[in-house]
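ARCHIVE CARD
SHELF: 3
SLOT: left
DATA:
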Amino acid sequence: MHVSKDEYDALLKQKSPNSPILKDILWAAVIGGLICTAGQGILNLYKMAGLPEKDAATATSITLIFLGALLTGLGWYDKLAKHAGAGTIVPITGFSNAVVAPALEFKSEGLVLGMAAKMFTIAGPVLVYGISASVVYGLVVYVFHLA
């Protein structure tokens, strides 16, 4: 069966529901803000416990990564992401989810060829381009003595 581009576009428009963009943006902002607020609260707790600012920030990052991984393992992070969209992707917990979710999905294939091989399927490109961009930025700063 051959369908023209115009026929395909008409069929797609007919079958695809309109996306509630304003609602999606609002939910993403609220949930992303709540995650960041929780992170600030955790940071404040670590500082109140006597950790220096730098150590408290490190402990906060580790805690948020752990919580993202835990909620992913329990299946709660995906349920939250279904409603919050980008609000759960942007914070550090989203990166944790991007590493843990594929690992859990492929655990039945074994530790090496399943979990370890698939763990960075989603997060791998982010790491590659992020590290590459930081190297290029560092070289530019070094060559032009900008720092």
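SLOT: right
DATA:
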Amino acid sequence: MAGTKNGAKEPKLTLKQRLRRLRIEMSTANLKIYGGITAFFYTLSMSVIQNGLMGAQNYTQAELADLMAKDPNMMLIGTWGSISQLIGGLSIPVFAFLLVEGFVRSRDRRAYLGRMVLFALVSELPFDFAMYGRAWDMRGQNVMFTYTVCLVVLCGLKLFAGQKGMRFWVVRIAIILAGVLWILLIKSQFGLVTLALVVIYYLMYDNKGMRLVVGAAVGLTYITAPLSTYTLWKFNGEKGKLWNKYVYYALYPVHLGLLGAIAYVLAR
């Protein structure tokens, strides 16, 4: 049995003390890994499962439903696709939360915004390839464009933070509505719910419990998104250890391209 330095036996830990040692804490790095893994499943569902295995792009919703009803194998594949999308929904509040944390803590917000714009542009062709099976498609834009709009909205809210009275609220509402309009125009992925979460997390930044509760209610639009609330609650405010930030950003277009290529091969 282990002992202390002077040879005395260590005191036996109570159940409560053991649970404290096992408590989970999430750093920024942990949240990024968690968000990245769960988001991967959404792309997997939309590209490899739906476009590659099911050929969903070749059918209308009604035709696909009829095909699944007649073919048990298609039904099974569709079920796995739905499960993967549900897992992917867990990432939505996590990335909205990280975006706000990054904005609040960033020493150079212009560089942060510029980085988001750059990777939004770089990711668009792989996104279209993975989601729609073609190199260029205007039906929707990748989620990095959503984050770009959210950052612009946050910059606007920060810029006019010193306003007071009715003018203060009018300006805030106008900035948020401009973000909503922008997202509706470009049709970016997870747009409205992400913007809503970002605004909530930012405006309620000093009230951790309230912002997570309200955020969970808003996240219900994606069913599983509120399940990430506990993960966000365990955020300890530390950066943690992660690879180079540019490598992390690059994983988004890379994984889109790879899964898109797999879907393309399966669909042939």
